[in-house]
Fold GNAT family N-acetyltransferase.
Amino acid sequence: MSVTELVLKSDLLLLRSITDHDIPVLWDLIYGTNEPEWKKWDAPYYPLEPHTLESYRSHENARKERLKFGEPDSRLVIEVNGMIIGTVTYYWEHKPSLWLEVGIGIYNSDYWSGGYGTEALHLWIDQLFKSLPIARVGLTTWSKNERMMRVGEKLGMKLEGRMRKCRIYEGKHYDSIRMGVLREEWNYWRYKKGSFN
């Protein structure tokens, strides 16, 4: 594989590249339940793409193969006390202009509202600014996912766009929310928080 493997640690959690041994665990967390609770908050207006264990394994291997040599892995597991609870990702909205977006999924609801999402994205965004020549990191969510918007705010992200009533879920309209942080804002935020190293 051409992917550069990653391991990022804090006192609270570990982010690391996905191994073949992780695939069954991730598959069960993501696809092992009909109508999983996490999907009600993670872009529920898009249907969950069905996968068998083997098609999911192929999908993950293909994702790694698409990365260019030296690029950081684009998806890491979030691990707490040796247990996988979710993933962080990045994707290119428009690679020629280095427009990058991040995402997070915490599939185990026991770990919601415990600071794990904020800490995972803190580590992830910091790593992306260190390893890629990007000027900005973006995050897209929707107006019902207030927890995700609070995470963005805690990490110094600014509301950059609100597309009103463009998402429909369970018969109701919601806004699409775009947040982002510039490299200089991130460095200032880290310095203010005392995590500048």
Observations:
- The mean pLDDT is 92.
- The radius of gyration is 17 Å.
- The chain has one domain: 7-193.
- The longest helix spans residues 116-131.
